[in-house]
Design a protein that fits this description.
Helix content: 40-55%
Largest sheet: 6 strands, parallel
Number of strands: 6
CATH topology of the largest domain: Rossmann fold
Structural class: alpha/beta
CATH superfamily of the largest domain: HAD superfamily/HAD-like
Radius of gyration: 21 Å
Number of helices: 9
Order of helices and strands: EHHHHHHEEHEHEEH
Shape: elongated
Distance between the termini: 27 Å
Length: 252
């Protein structure tokens, strides 16, 4: 049976799997928008322009979120490319605010640079580094994310010779293509691979359909019966114990 095959590879989701992401996103969203509002107002004053209303007064944060959703509907192939959606939305809004096209693009890029700096201030779970070091001694590792974290900018990135940004390849999970791309680059078959992620729709279902085994990070859920090949964990720290239960090596 496929479930008894030795594992060759383990693929990981990032957000809310290797770190808690909610606080990061709140700080990133509010932080880069406040930066844009403040710096743009100061720039306008140096040009002798009135800074009232400010950009954020004209376009509250909620309107930015609505604009991104509208763009995602209008450009379905880009629906998972969050960096593109954000920059495009800001460029449009800055133009409506009165900036010429070149200035709108320049300020949108600057705001996104602030966004990405804040976006990478993640704090991986303390167990993540030693866990990945341990697993990397025996298994081929990859990351597969719908988010716009560039894992190579993080210390943890050294553990992932294969890193798939699903949104940027215009195939966000649950599309199977990011999983297939990761497995192809790892040289591993689905039957000999395990995926670790927190989303039932974006991690569990697509990986299971491909024939991968799945460790589903789902804390605070009662121990309901799981379909074959799916194993619920409260936290990624429980992964070594799961591997042992599956009869797989756990390097020391």
């Amino acid at each position: 049976m496929a479930a008894s095959l030795p594992l060759q590879a383990i693929t990981f989701d990032l957000d809310d799997t290797l770190w808690d992401n909610h606080g990061v996103m709140v700080a990133t969203e509010t932080g880069h928008y406040a930066w844009l509002d403040r710096e743009l107002a100061a720039w306008r004053l140096t040009r002798g322009e009135t800074a009232s209303p400010t950009f954020a007064e004209r376009f509250p944060l909620a309107s930015f979120e609505q604009r991104r959703r509208s763009l995602a509907r209008a450009h379905p192939l880009r629906r998972g490319d969050f960096t593109w959606l954000r920059e495009r939305a800001l460029t449009q809004m800055l133009g409506e605010y009165g900036l010429d096209p070149a200035a709108a693009e320049r300020w949108a890029r600057a705001a996104m640079a602030q966004f990405m700096a804040l976006r990478h201030r993640v704090e991986p779970h303390p167990e993540a580094e030693p866990l990945l070091t341990q697993l990397g001694r025996h298994y081929r590792l990859a990351s597969i994310t719908n988010g716009n974290v560039d894992v190579s900018r993080l210390a943890l990135g050294r553990h992932f010779p294969v890193a798939i940004a699903a949104g940027e390849m215009l195939a966000p999970k649950p599309d199977p293509r990011p999983f297939l791309a990761a497995l192809a680059r790892l040289g591993a078959s689905p039957a000999r691979s395990l995926h670790v992620g927190d989303s039932w729709r974006e991690d569990v279902e697509p990986a299971r359909r491909l024939g991968m085994r799945v460790a589903w990070i789902s804390p605070h859920l009662d121990d309901l019966p799981m379909p074959p090949g799916i194993h619920r964990l409260d936290h990624v720290r429980e992964l070594p114990a799961l591997l042992r239960r599956l009869g797989q090596p756990v390097p020391g």
